[in-house]
Amino acid sequence: MSYRFTDLLPADHSGPALRHDVLTGLTAEPKWLPPKWFYDKTGSALFEDITRLPEYYPTRSERAILEADAAVIVRSSGAGHLVELGSGSSEKTRLLLDEIASGGYTALDVSEDALRQAGDGLAATYPDLRIDLVRADFEEHLTEVLRRPADGPRLVAFLGGTIGNLKPEQRQVFLRSVRDGLNPGDSFLLGADLVKSPDVLVRAYDDSAGVTAAFNLNLLQVLNHRLGADFDPSAFEHHAVWDGDRAWIEMRLRALRDVIVRFADLDLTVRFAAGEEMRTEISAKFTRERLEKELGAAGFGAGGWWTDPDGRFSLSLWRP
Ligand code: AVJ
């Protein structure tokens, strides 16, 4: 084995967190759940399918930027060590690692399988890279992860547009803690999706093949399997809405009839009226000005801005 693996999450980590989120979100008005629970085995596979849909441009657009500009980005950061928050398959990461091949790489993710699979692949391609895999939650363990030793100045990358899943207040807390964890000479690379025509945005979250609908509805199966709930997914439909005032896409599940759900493991009963909607995800979209304002408020200065040729997605570099 040519990587180091550290587990910062207790074995039962997600159990209490999921219970807490269900007890909070499904008793709220309107009902909501945080998007992190989408990603069981089926959900992760459906997300991979989403990234290949013609309507879902963010993954392709971000890859196009990395293919064109990764070398310039890494060189201008001066980094010898890449830290990736939410690394997943580390597939796009390779484009950055090509420039850091004999330095260090720290990958942080909640999935041990994803980390080890990516670690094996990377170790084969980059024999001189020091690989440090950390199973952790980027909202909980950031400070701890950023205290780990590094091979030279670090580039901390948060790719994929996942920043958009955080609400503005959570975003500010997150960006602040990234900023506070960096040393002089380090930098932060952010992948953020950009505001564009509502048609294009809604289609990206409500595709014609119904894959995003299946991804959204799979959340009900996650609740059935993990909390002994008895959702009938056919009683709900997928809905994606663009909120222009808040500049975010909302994914919702709408009850098609009155529904009563029993959560055996929680001693909880939840009622949906016909037509009632539950919010399952926000995916915020940005402008360059908005990012400069928010990153500036967190203590960052601008270090570079790149988009794909169609101007759909952005990568931006920030210095503490
Ligand atoms: C993985 C959070 C970036 O918000 O676009 C894709 C998740 N949800 N289709 C996004 C997602 C519906 C995705 N992120």
From TrEMBL:
- Looking at the record, the residues that make up the Histidine-specific methyltransferase SAM-dependent domain are 19-319
Q: Which GO terms describe its molecular function?
A: L-histidine N(alpha)-methyltransferase activity
Q: What is its EC number?
A: 2.1.1.44
Q: Which reaction does it catalyse?
A: L-histidine + 3 S-adenosyl-L-methionine = hercynine + 3 S-adenosyl-L-homocysteine + 3 H(+)
Q: Which domain of life is it from?
A: Bacteria
Question: Which Gene3D superfamilies does the entry mention?
Answer: Vaccinia Virus protein VP39 (3.40.50.150)
Q: Where does S-adenosyl-L-methionine bind?
A: G86, K92, D109, D137, F138
A Pfam short name: Methyltransf_33
Q: Which UniProt keywords apply?
A: Methyltransferase, S-adenosyl-L-methionine, Transferase
Which InterPro entries does this UniProt record tie to the protein? Answer: EgtD, EgtD_Actinobacteria, EgtD_Methyltrsf_superfamily, MeTrfase_dom, MeTrfase_EgtD-like, SAM-dependent_MTases_sf
Its pathway, per UniProt, is: Amino-acid biosynthesis; ergothioneine biosynthesis
Q: Which residues bind L-histidine?
A: Y56, N165, Y205, E281, I282, S283
Q: Which GO terms describe its biological process?
A: methylation
**Main function:** Catalyzes the SAM-dependent triple methylation of the alpha-amino group of histidine to form hercynine, a step in the biosynthesis pathway of ergothioneine.
Q: What protein family is recorded?
A: Belongs to the methyltransferase superfamily. EgtD family.
Subunit text: Monomer.
In its UniProt entry, what is this protein called?
Histidine N-alpha-methyltransferase
Question: Which gene underlies this protein?
Answer: egtD
